[in-house]
From TrEMBL:
SUPFAM superfamilies: Aldolase (SSF51569)
Keyword Lyase: yes
Species this chain originates from: Rhizobium favelukesii
GO terms under biological process: glycolytic process
Transmembrane segments: none
Keywords from the named record: Glycolysis, Lyase
Top EC category: lyase
Name used for this protein in its record: Fructose-bisphosphate aldolase
Family that this chain belongs to: Belongs to the class I fructose-bisphosphate aldolase family.
Record pathway: Carbohydrate degradation; glycolysis; D-glyceraldehyde 3-phosphate and glycerone phosphate from D-glucose: step 4/4
Gene3D superfamilies with a match to the protein in the record: Aldolase class I (3.20.20.70)
Pfam families: Glycolytic
GO molecular function, one term: fructose-bisphosphate aldolase activity
Gene name for this UniProt entry: fbaB
């Protein structure tokens, strides 16, 4: 298997496969487990993620790579097999979240700056050693009538670009994720405002990537879709697709091999429907697929419920969403396939 950045980046987005974002920090997975009344321990986190990674047929057919949290990268399944080996055995690529979170930004109330650049070069060398071939860093852009500010925009785009350059130096493909929030507070902005902020964000990010000498061929972009805020849902699936494609075409160079969307709090089926609409009816210069966390996992987590006897049910739910999103990545998802299942 080629180890060139460009080839890994293409593998991450090709053939209707997409990424499983299973990189919830210990705090975030704890919140997810709260919804099923399960205590988050190293063992329960292992059992849950083992269930996903061992859904072997679905992983092989639909999941090109799994984004892991540091604990998971080094973790072993109950029988002692490293997760990294299980993922690779399904012809999928292990990746790693390397930022250490979005922290309140000094002097910028209501905005955050993502941290984790200090010592990153050394950490990346260790992650490569442990088997990671791509990484993720998420910058967060809050939307309100007065936000984002230029100061926060610039700082987050700069950090994303510095991260991406360090990854490429370590022979790791960077997933560059600037997320304009749909589910933050107040969440009542409309699709026009989301389009305006997303376009500004992506333009700023690609300027910073150029200044940091990041190779566009060796990266993946993970953006939000252009969508109404969570408290203002109105736009049709067709409109979300049209507005999203418009903004991406204006801002994302065609040298970028792939775009893998985050789901950002959309329901599982919405995230699938939007991706499918984006992939049908438009002539796109990039491969466009999914890098979903909640939209791939929510139904599986619920079906599992933390009970060993429900592992098969959890795997069926995960396999179903993975298959639906793979169809969407080829523009051929249909709503009746959901009902049939
Ligand atoms: P969601 O798809 O749940 O938004 O998660 C994707 C992700 O990796 C966010 O950083």
């Amino acid at each position: 298997m080629s180890e060139r950045l460009e080839d890994i980046a293409v593998r991450m987005v090709a053939g209707g496969r997409g990424l499983l974002a299973a990189d919830e920090s210990t705090g975030t997975i704890g919140k997810r487990f709260d919804t099923i009344g399960l205590q988050s321990t190293e063992t329960s986190r292992r059992d849950y993620r083992e269930m996903l990674f061992r859904t072997e047929d679905a992983m092989r057919q639909y999941i090109s790579g799994a984004i892991l949290y540091e604990e998971t990268l080094h973790q072993k399944a109950a029988d002692g097999t490293p997760f990294v080996d299980i993922i690779r055995a399904a012809d999928s690529i292990p990746g790693i979240k390397v930022d250490i979170g979005a922290k309140p930004m000094a002097a910028y109330p209501g905005e955050t700056i993502t941290e984790g650049l200090d010592g990153l070069a050394e950490r990346l060398a260790k992650y490569y050693e442990a088997g990671a071939r791509f990484a993720k860093w998420r910058g967060v852009i809050a939307i309100s009538p007065t936000l984002p500010t230029w100061g926060s925009m610039k700082a987050n785009a700069h950090a994303l670009a510095r991260y991406a350059a360090l990854c490429q130096q370590a022979n790791i493909v960077p997933i560059v994720e600037p997320e304009c929030l749909m589910d933050g507070k107040p969440g009542d902005h409309n699709i026009d405002r989301c389009a305006e902020v997303t376009e500004w964000t992506l333009r700023t990010v690609f300027e910073e990537l150029a200044d940091a000498r990041v190779s566009l061929e060796g990266m993946i972009l993970k953006p939000n879709m252009v969508i109404d805020g969570k408290n203002a849902r109105k736009a049709s699936v067709a409109e979300v697709a049209e507005r999203t494609v418009e903004v991406l075409k204006r801002t994302v160079p065609s040298a970028v091999p792939g775009i893998a969307f985050l789901s950002g709090g959309q329901s599982s089926e919405e995230a699938t429907a939007h991706l499918s609409a984006i992939n049908s009816g438009y002539d796109l210069p990039w491969a466009v697929t999914f890098s979903y966390g909640r939209a791939l996992q929510d139904t599986a987590l619920k079906a599992w419920g933390g009970k060993p006897e429900n592992v098969a049910a959890g795997q069926r739910a995960f396999a179903h969403r993975a298959e639906m999103n793979s169809l969407a990545a080829k523009g051929s998802w249909k709503k009746d396939l959901e009902q049939a299942a």
